[in-house]
Amino acid sequence: MKNLFFLFITFLVLKSEDSFITQYEYGQMLYNNPRGIGCVHCHGKDGSGALIAKYKEDGKTKSLRGPNIRNKSIKDLKKSLFKRHKVMPTYFLTDSEIEALAYFLSNKGD
């Protein structure tokens, strides 16, 4: 019984204090390559948006840009990630993954 108690306490201590990677690093990893094409390709290195493509329509040059997502709340990120988009792929991220992405974006230095 004493050994079981020791294992349980060890598990709690390791789980709460020692993590293989930080939430920032996990969010960064997901941002760069969540499951397929990374957010970085359309939203830029810092989430402020990036040029995806230029094209001509009716003789005019137009641009397709990824929107700025740096100041999005977790609620807004979840809403956007679960919504079908014409251009953005669906990632099927978990709540904890979205929280890590939000943490990374809100703590990303310029």
UniProtKB/TrEMBL annotation:
It holds the Pfam family Cytochrom_C. Keywords: Heme, Iron, Metal-binding. One of its GO terms (molecular function) is heme binding. Signal peptide: none annotated. Transmembrane segments: none annotated. Residues 25-107 form the Cytochrome c domain. The keyword DNA-binding does not apply. This is Cytochrome C oxidase, cbb3-type, subunit III. It comes from Hydrogenimonas thermophila.
